[in-house]
Design a protein that fits this description.
Elements lengths: L2 E2 L2 E3 L11 H32 L16 H28 L2 H13 L3 H9 L1 H5 L2 E2 L2 E2 L4 E3 L5 E3 L2 H4 L4 E3 L2 E5 L5 E5 L2 H16 L9 E3 L3 E2 L1
Antiparallel strand pairs: 1-11, 2-10, 3-4, 5-6, 7-8, 8-9
Length: 218
């Protein structure tokens, strides 16, 4: 088993007088926090891959060694970590104020079009179990049968609780779709590249930070 150490270049703080000390702290800490959440995703992914081949962490309570329990938990952590990265990048872009940084932040979420909806369904699973979103019914689509007639579906036809299908995390989301996100090194690499793009869009040279991520499954 081989590993590689990922490193990202953190942008420098603007050489301007800021209105408040909190802004200066934001320019320094938001990028580091985003990289920390990438680190969380890398750890979750490694443990997820191990759990899928039966190598679950030792010392789990009885009943938690099941084939699906641990991978599903780690997939949820992976998803939540990537969502955390996106939120931090969005806030950093708002603080920075440059259009290019804002565009790069938007591009992070564009790379994972189902991420926000999946995270919402995971957080509000109680509502999804009632086939509702924001206290309103989720629209149920209709299907066209082979004879050309349409038939309305009901919730039991289309509802999917947050779950794993192989390495794909999936769930019914607020518009009735089945949303999906792959829990994989490819997904993590895309997140890493998009994060670096946000930092690079500032046009500022790093102030000496070169933040190492935890070793990730290569």
């Amino acid at each position: 088993m081989s590993y590689e150490l990922f490193r990202l270049r953190v942008p420098g703080t603007p050489r301007v007088e800021l209105a408040a000390a909190s802004q200066a702290m934001g320019f320094m800490l938001l990028p580091l926090a985003a990289i920390g959440r990438l680190d969380d995703a890398a750890v979750a992914l490694h443990l997820f891959e191990e759990a899928r081949v039966g190598n679950v962490p030792p010392g789990l309570p009885p009943g938690f060694e099941g084939v699906e329990r641990v991978p599903r938990l780690l997939a949820a952590v992976f998803l939540d970590s990537l969502m955390g990265v996106g939120r931090l990048l969005k806030r950093f872009a708002e603080l920075d104020g440059q259009p290019g940084v804002a565009d790069a932040s938007v591009a992070y979420f564009a790379a994972f079009p189902d991420l926000e909806d999946l995270r919402d369904s995971l957080e509000h699973e109680d509502e999804r179990m009632l086939f509702r979103a924001r206290r309103k019914p989720i629209p149920v689509p209709s299907i066209t049968l082979s004879d050309g007639e349409s038939r309305d579906l009901d919730e039991t036809d289309v509802f999917h609780a947050p779950s794993l299908s192989g390495i794909t995390f999936q769930a019914t989301v607020q518009d009735g779709r089945l949303a999906k996100l792959e829990v994989s090194q490819t997904t993590l690499n895309i997140a890493r590249v998009r994060t670096q793009s946000v930092f690079d869009a500032t046009g500022r040279t790093a102030t000496g930070y070169d933040w190492p991520l935890s070793a990730s499954h290569a």
